Amino acid sequence: MITDNHGRKINYLRLAVTDRCNLRCFYCMPEEGIDWLNRAELLSYEEILRLCTLLVDMGIDKIRITGGEPFVRRDMMQLLEALSAIDGLNEISLTTNGVLTAPYIPELKRLGIKSINLSLDTLDAGRFFSITRRDEFAAVMHTLDELLKYGFEVKINAVVMDGRNTQDILPLVALTKDLPVSVRFIEEMPFNGDSHVYTGLAWDHLRILDHITQSYPGIQKIKDAPYSTSYNYHIPGHIGNVGIIAAYSRTFCGTCNRIRLTPQGEMKTCLYEGEGLDVRALLRSNASNDELRQQLATAISHRAKDGWEAEAARKTGDPVHESMALIGG
C-alpha cells in the first residue's frame, strides 16, 4: 500500500500515453495544436509496462488510460493487452473523445475493460464543431451507441463553459432518462495551453446544480463512491445518474487517491502541481526497481495537501496554463 504524507491511500494511476489529439477543443489547446513531443520524448510501451508493473507491486490497483487521445497512439491495443496481464491490477479504464474508438470496442470488452469515460461537451453538431474545431460529432455519437450496445459503464464528461455550452446542460441531463449513463459536468479549468484567456470560473458546481434543480426539482443526492471526484445525483424515473465535478473548486482533494504520469514520463502527485518527478530520466539512467520505488515513494511522501497548495507551490512565473493534453486529461 502506498500512503502519502497526509495519510491518504494511493491506489489509482492516471496514465497519459500521448499528448496528441485529433480534436482541438478550445479550452485545451490552440487551434494549431501545441508543440507535440517527438517519439523519443514519450515513454515507450516497454517503459510504461515496467513502471506500471512496479507501481502495481507498490499498491496501485486501478489504471486509467488518458491522453491527449489514447487511440491516436499506434498499437494502443497491444499496450492494453499487456497491461491487462499484470498480476494485481484489478481495473483498467479509459478516457477517450470517441472519434477513433468504435472499431476497438469489441476488443476492449474482451480484455475485461468495463468503464469508459467519453468526452462530449454538447449534443449539438454545430456547437461540437465550434468547441472542437473538427467535424466529428457523428463519429462520437456512434461510439456512444456502440459502448452502450456492448454493455460498458459509460460516463459522459462535459466541461461547462460560460457562453459556449451552458444551453447543453439540460439536454445532456435528459440523456439519463432512457440511457444507463452517468453524465458528469466538470468545472472549466485554466489548463488551456493559452488557447484563450481564462477569466475565472463563471459556472461552479453549485451554479450547475442549481441550474439542473430548477428543471428537475426532485433531483436527489445519492451516495458517492469512495474517492469519488464527483457529487452524484439521481432524478426519479431516470435510468442514469448525474455527477458534478468541482475540478476548479477542488473540494474533493481531501480524499484524493490518484497520481498521474504524463506522456513525457513525469509523475505528478496533483493535477495542479508544477514540476513532478522525472521518471523517464530514472528509467533511462538504468535505475534499479528499488531505486525507482524509493524515488516514487519519496515524491508521494511530499504531496501537497490539496490543489490550492500545489498551485501555490509552483515556481514563480509558472502560472497554470499548460494544455491538459500534456498532463493527462
TrEMBL record:
Q: What class of enzyme is it?
A: lyase
> Where's the Radical SAM core domain?
5-220
Is Cytoplasm given among the entry's keywords?
A: no
Q: Which SUPFAM superfamilies match?
A: Radical SAM enzymes (SSF102114)
EC assignment: the record states: 4.1.99.22
Metabolic or biological pathway, per its Swiss-Prot or TrEMBL entry? Cofactor biosynthesis; molybdopterin biosynthesis
- Can you cite a GO biological process for this protein? Mo-molybdopterin cofactor biosynthetic process
This protein's cofactor list reads: [4Fe-4S] cluster
- Keywords, A to Z? 4Fe-4S, GTP-binding, Iron, Iron-sulfur, Lyase, Metal-binding, Molybdenum cofactor biosynthesis, Nucleotide-binding, S-adenosyl-L-methionine
One family name in Pfam for this protein: Radical_SAM
Q: PANTHER family, alphabetically?
A: MOLYBDENUM COFACTOR BIOSYNTHESIS PROTEIN 1, MOLYBDOPTERIN COFACTOR SYNTHESIS PROTEIN A
Identify the HAMAP family for this entry.
MoaA_B
Q: Quaternary arrangement and interactors, per the entry?
A: Monomer and homodimer.
The identity of this protein, by name, is: GTP 3',8-cyclase
Query: Where does this protein come from, organism-wise?
Result: Mucilaginibacter mali
